[in-house]
């Protein structure tokens, strides 16, 4: 009896499809909610620094003066807390993974120049 | 919300061994020993239970005090007592298995008492 | 009188998934005494709570362990919620329970595979991990992470599972159930497994209780000890019964886990059937002030998170007593008196997770 089970299993393994994905040829599995890597829509960013303060692994550095947003990909644990606390909702989690690397990966995103400050017009009623 | 019953009893350090012995004869098991640093003093909780009604004995000690080991009563207590010794630098006397600071071998000795300096990551990352 | 020699075992060893070091004192081939050393992966996560916001710390609490991750975050949340008196909505409780049971399934399947690998049963190893992959797929589809879910937060959960997806999950579990039963049957009846594990590393019921064994290690020795029977999260409404085996040897600890996988499938099915509607999170206002000991049942056993807060954003003390840590004294007792060649299998049966034990 065990022999039959064994033969059945062996035949199924020989004739069936492999249980694994042929990875580089077939892309890895992905779902809509998969946490792959963090991206920012820098044009909406107001450089408040909320993401830097809440980042549990200190991967984000925001510079308000130079208007830059910087992420250290190797420190980032892709928890998504930055996306949650962003007041302008301009940080997103993309489902695909960042490519592997052999050295430090620090990405600097330069924001657009600050819009000219709207001068407060002193209303004079005369 | 499910409340688990937990009674905390504050006792003096000298009563600890007697109390632990009492719990042992009543058939309680040792759940944990945990240390809480509170500035100038440390609170140590010894938690026991028979079913799901937890009871904690709480002693308060200061730096340099000696804590008697309950590992004579509860054989398995050595792991918690060595942990307290290794992380907080408190001395526990008469442990049945004394690792002398080699149970948790951290690079910084007694890391929870003298925490290493925290560095803030600067721009450009710190991965070299 | 034969000579005693000391054989170092670990921290790097093919059978050990994580670094624990044991100094084995041998007399011929027999272990007389074992002295454990840990500390190779101490990260000081408990200390980090003093530097981070208590709400963000959930994500760090989850990363204490790479396998029973979700249960750590839920236990931490439970502690904070009890201190602050937050009533978590029932739907959040049920979904948390479903994810906890999923992590139990994947942890146990991982362990069953590793055990099969430790005794040289490669086919069973791959079979178990193949089944685990199916569980992980559902986890990723619902939470976004394969093993680090990151979907629990103080006051509820971050992501809801739509009702259609819950139905699909149950159908998927139904379809893999025969395969799980098949693997369970192999662990119960196969001659290879029995021969390798029966009567090995025996821990009697009294010893298990006295030394503080928890989880499958205690249940394999006949101790009826499972925190889920206290009914935290939604377990109280699902009708839970602990699984115990009487012999206290390696095979029984293995069978407890093997049976718990099937029990977890049942629990998920019951939870989906009773799933209430409603909100998934409760607003959190203010900072915690007080202390609480939160207990939960992880795949490896009873886990305790002690939180002490003083009304500030940073918590004073977060102490985690993980199941592996308290299972080390029973392991030392089990190792005394067995053959050197059996040490890897016996060490594996407490499911050592040193990352957990050291935090």
Give a short overview.
Chain A is of the alpha+beta class. Chain A has helices at residues 2-15, 50-54, 81-85; strands at 37-40, 60-63, 68-72, 91-94, 106-110.
Lay out the secondary structure.
The complex is a heterotrimer of chains A (126), B (128) and C (359).
Chain A: H1 2-15, E1 37-40, H2 50-54, E2 60-63, E3 68-72, H3 81-85, E4 91-94, E5 106-110
Antiparallel strand pairs in A: 1-4, 2-3, 3-5
Chain B: E1 6-10, H1 16-25, E2 29-38, E3 41-49, E4 54-62, E5 66-68, H2 78-88, E6 91-93
Parallel strand pairs in B: 1-4, 5-6
Antiparallel strand pairs in B: 2-3, 3-4
Chain C: E1 4-9, E2 21-27, E3 30-37, H1 45-48, H2 57-62, H3 69-84, H4 90-118, H5 122-143, E4 152-153, E5 156-157, H6 163-189, H7 191-197, H8 205-211, H9 215-219, H10 235-238, H11 250-273, E6 289-298, E7 301-310, E8 317-321, H12 323-335, H13 343-349, H14 354-358
Antiparallel strand pairs in C: 1-2, 2-3, 4-5, 6-7, 7-8
Distance between the termini of chain A: 105 Å
Any idea how many domains of chain B?
1
- How many beta strands in the DSSP annotation of chain B? 6
CATH hierarchy, class of one domain in chain A? Alpha Beta
Label the structural class of chain B: alpha/beta
Instruction: Report the major sheet of chain B.
Output: 4 strands, mixed
CATH superfamily of chain B, by name, is NADH:ubiquinone oxidoreductase Nqo5 subunit
Measured on Cα atoms, how large is the radius of gyration of chain A?
Answer: 25 Å
Structural class of chain A: alpha+beta
Largest sheet of chain A: 3 strands, antiparallel
Say what oligomer this is.
heterotrimer
List SSEs of chain A in N-to-C order: HEHEEHEE
> How much helical structure, as a percent, in the residues of chain A?
10-25%
CATH topology of chain B: Beta Polymerase, domain 2
At the fold tier of CATH, the topology name of one domain in chain A is Alpha-Beta Plaits
Given the C-alpha coordinates, what overall shape of chain B results? Answer: globular
Biggest chain contact? B-C, 37 and 44 residues
Pattern of helices and strands of chain B: EHEEEEHE
Report on this model:
Chain B: This is NADH-quinone oxidoreductase subunit C. Chain B: InterPro entries: NADH_quin_OxRdtase_su_C/D-like (IPR037232), NADH_UbQ_OxRdtase_30kDa_su (IPR001268). Chain B: Residues 28-94 form the NADH:ubiquinone oxidoreductase 30kDa subunit domain. Chain B: Pfam families: Complex1_30kDa. The complex is a heterotrimer of chains A (126), B (128) and C (359). By secondary structure, chain A is an alpha+beta fold. Chain A has a domain at 28-110: Alpha-Beta Plaits (2-Layer Sandwich), CATH 3.30.70.3270. Chain A has helices at residues 2-15, 50-54, 81-85; strands at 37-40, 60-63, 68-72, 91-94, 106-110. A three-stranded antiparallel β-sheet of chain A has the order 2-3-5, with no helix packed on it. The longest helix of chain A has 14 residues, at 2-15. The radius of gyration of chain A is 25 Å and the shape is elongated. The termini of chain A are far apart. The model of chain A has no long low-confidence stretch (mean pLDDT 80). With 128 residues, chain B is α/β, with parallel strands linked by helices. Chain B has a single domain, classed as NADH:ubiquinone oxidoreductase Nqo5 subunit (Beta Polymerase, domain 2). Chain B has two helices and six strands; from the N terminus they run βαββββαβ. Chain B starts with 5 loop residues before the first strand and ends in a 35-residue tail after the last strand. Chain C has a single domain (45-354), classed as Orthogonal Bundle (Cytochrome-c3 Hydrogenase, chain B). In chain C, the strands form three sheets. Chain C has a three-stranded antiparallel β-sheet with strand order 1-2-3. A three-stranded antiparallel β-sheet of chain C has the order 6-7-8. In chain C, strand 2 and strand 3 (30-37) form a beta hairpin. The chains are: A alpha+beta (126), B alpha/beta (128), C alpha+beta (359). The B-C interface holds B 1-4, 6, 29-32, 34-38, 45, 47, 52, 54, 56, 74-76, 78-79, 83, 86, 97, 99, 102-106, 111-112, 115, 118 and C 35-40, 42, 44, 46-47, 51, 81-82, 87-88, 209-212, 227, 229-233, 236, 292-295, 302, 304, 306, 308, 316-317, 319, 321, 325-326, 328-330, 358.
């Amino acid at each position: 009896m065990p022999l039959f089970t064994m033969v059945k299993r062996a035949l199924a393994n020989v004739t069936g499809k492999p249980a694994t994905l042929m990875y580089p040829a077939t892309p890895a599995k992905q779902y809509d909610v998969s946490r792959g890597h963090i991206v920012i829509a820098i044009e909406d960013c107001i450089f408040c620094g909320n993401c830097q303060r809440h980042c549990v692994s200190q991967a984000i550095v925001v510079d308000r003066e130079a208007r830059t947003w910087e992420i250290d990909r190797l420190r980032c644990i892709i928890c998504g807390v930055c996306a949650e606390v962003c007041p302008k909702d301009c940080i997103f989690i993309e489902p695909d993974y960042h490519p592997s690397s052999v050295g430090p990966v620090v990405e600097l995103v330069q924001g657009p120049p600050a819009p000219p400050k709207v001068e407060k017009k002193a209303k004079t009623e005369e | 919300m499910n409340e688990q019953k937990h009674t905390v009893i504050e006792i003096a350090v000298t009563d600890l061994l007697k109390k632990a012995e009492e719990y042992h004869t009543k058939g309680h098991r040792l759940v944990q020993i945990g240390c809480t640093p509170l500035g100038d003093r440390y609170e140590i909780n010894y938690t026991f239970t028979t079913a799901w009604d937890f009871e904690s004995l709480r002693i308060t000690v200061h730096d340099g005090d000696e804590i008697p080991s309950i590992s004579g009563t509860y054989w398995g207590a050595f792991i918690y007592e060595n942990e307290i010794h290794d992380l907080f630098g408190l001395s526990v006397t008469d442990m049945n298995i004394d690792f002398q600071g080699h149970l948790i071998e951290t690079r910084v000795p007694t890391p929870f008492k003298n925490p290493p300096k925290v560095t803030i990551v600067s721009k450009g990352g710190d991965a070299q | 009188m034969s000579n005693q020699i000391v054989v170092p075992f670990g921290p790097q060893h093919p059978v050990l998934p994580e670094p624990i070091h044991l100094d084995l004192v041998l007399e011929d081939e027999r272990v007389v005494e074992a002295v454990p050393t840990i500390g190779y992966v101490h990260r000081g996560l408990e200390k980090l709570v003093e530097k981070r916001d208590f709400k963000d710390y959930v994500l760090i609490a989850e990363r204490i362990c790479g396998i029973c991750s979700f249960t750590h975050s839920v236990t931490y949340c439970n502690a904070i919620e009890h201190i602050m008196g937050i009533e978590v909505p029932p739907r959040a409780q049920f979904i948390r329970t479903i994810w906890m049971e999923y992590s139990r399934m994947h942890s146990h399947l991982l362990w069953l595979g590793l055990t099969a690998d430790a005794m040289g049963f490669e086919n069973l190893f791959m079979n178990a991990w193949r089944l685990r992959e199916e569980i992980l797929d559902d986890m990723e589809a619902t939470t976004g992470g394969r093993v680090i879910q990151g979907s629990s937060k103080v006051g509820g959960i971050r992501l809801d599972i739509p009702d259609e997806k819950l139905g699909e999950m149950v159908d998927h579990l139904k379809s893999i159930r025969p395969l799980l039963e098949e693997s369970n049957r192999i662990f119960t009846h196969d001659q290879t497994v029995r021969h390798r594990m029966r009567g090995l590393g025996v821990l009697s019921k009294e010893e298990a209780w006295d030394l503080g064994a928890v989880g499958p290690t205690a249940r394999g020795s006949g101790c009826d000890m499972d925190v889920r029977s206290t009914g935290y999260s939604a377990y109280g409404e699902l009708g839970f019964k602990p699984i115990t085996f009487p012999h206290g040897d390696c095979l029984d600890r293995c069978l407890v886990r093997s049976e718990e996988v099937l029990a977890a499938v049942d629990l998920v099915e019951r939870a989906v059937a009773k799933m209430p509607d409603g909100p998934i999170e409760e607003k959190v206002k203010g900072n915690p002030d007080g202390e609480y000991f939160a207990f939960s049942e992880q795949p490896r056993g009873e886990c305790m998170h002690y939180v002490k807060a003083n009304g500030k954003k940073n918590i004073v003390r977060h102490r985690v007593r993980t199941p592996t840590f308290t299972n080390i004294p029973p392991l030392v007792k089990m190792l005394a008196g067995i053959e050197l060649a059996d040490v890897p299998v016996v060490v594996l049966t407490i499911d050592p997770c040193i990352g957990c034990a050291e935090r």
